[in-house]
Amino acid sequence: MDDEDIVRNVAGKMLEFLGYRATLARDGREALDLYRTRLEAGNPFSAVILDMVVPGGLDGSATLAELLGMDPGVKAIFSSGYGETAPDGSALKGHAGLVAKPYELKTLAGVLEKILASAK
After folding, report:
1. Where are any strands of DSSP class E within the chain?
2. Which pTM value belongs to this model?
3. Which CATH number applies to 5-117?
4. What are the φ/ψ torsions at residue 76 (nearest 5 degrees)?
């Protein structure tokens, strides 16, 4: 989930290059709707990548808090263009990693592998 088209599209291409299937969302509300649909179908996402700052929209921390209410086992990665500082607060609860923008393929792969491994 990212409000910037270029970031969202590049992230999607990177994930596909790494062998994952990506579903893209513009904001937290769209991400929540997509997650809920997949969860109700019995086919939840393995992980989500959430932009920490979404002007005028639901940001990553608020989105993760709602996702945790839906699915306590959700695995998330926060995405930030403001450095490598994760948000404070109980919303994380061990469910999230962090990757700084602009993404580097190796870094994205490493964070994703780590968060997915924690799901096992």
Report:
1. 48-51, 76-80, 96-100
2. 0.89
3. 3.40.50.2300
4. -130, 155
